[in-house]
Amino acid sequence: AFLDVSLASDGKVLDGAVFSTSAAPTVDAGVANKKYVDDEITAAHVSARCKAWVTHNSAGVIQGSGFNITSTVQNDTGDYTVTWDTDFADTNYAVSITSHTATDEGTFCSIKTKAVGSVRYTVTNRAGSNVDFACDVMAFGDQ
């Protein structure tokens, strides 16, 4: 197996430009921005990648496409649940949540419950009150 990676002229990987292929790379001087990676990709590399991600607005509505997400729901003020499309193997996966603020308010994201199929979390301000903010959620672990 090989990975076909397309690069921009500045050397950065293009959006949506990484594909798995069984075709061996060929030498082609006209394709200077293509690189191939072969079977050296190990299981450790695969398990370390992000398994699910999403950005939602302050009402819990998904912004853009996300990845491996069934839904996001606003349960109450500053209280959200993200449901994974593919469940994790157990609850020992890692979740990173960040909130977007347009002010210097300072917010804290705290996991309330973590199940194999979802994570529920709250966003609070410095005073400890739940507040509605857009968030980015990423999850890593075995599925």
Polypeptide structure, described:
The chain is mainly beta and 143 residues long. It has two domains: 40 residues, no CATH class; 94 residues, Immunoglobulin-like. Helices cover 3% and strands 51% of the residues. The protein has one helix and eleven strands; from the N terminus they run βββαββββββββ. The strands form three sheets. Strands 5-4-11-8 form a four-stranded antiparallel sheet, with no helix packed on it. The chain has a four-stranded antiparallel sheet with strand order 6-7-10-9, with no helix packed on it. It has a three-stranded antiparallel sheet with strand order 2-1-3, with no helix packed on it. A hairpin with a 5-residue loop joins strand 4 and strand 5. The longest helix is centred in the first third of the chain and has 5 residues. The protein is globular. About 6% of the residues have low confidence.
Write the layout of secondary structure elements.
Layout: E1 2-7, E2 13-21, E3 34-37, H1 43-47, E4 52-56, E5 62-67, E6 69-76, E7 79-84, E8 94-99, E9 107-115, E10 118-125, E11 135-140
Antiparallel strand pairs: 1-2, 1-3, 4-5, 4-11, 6-7, 7-10, 8-11, 9-10
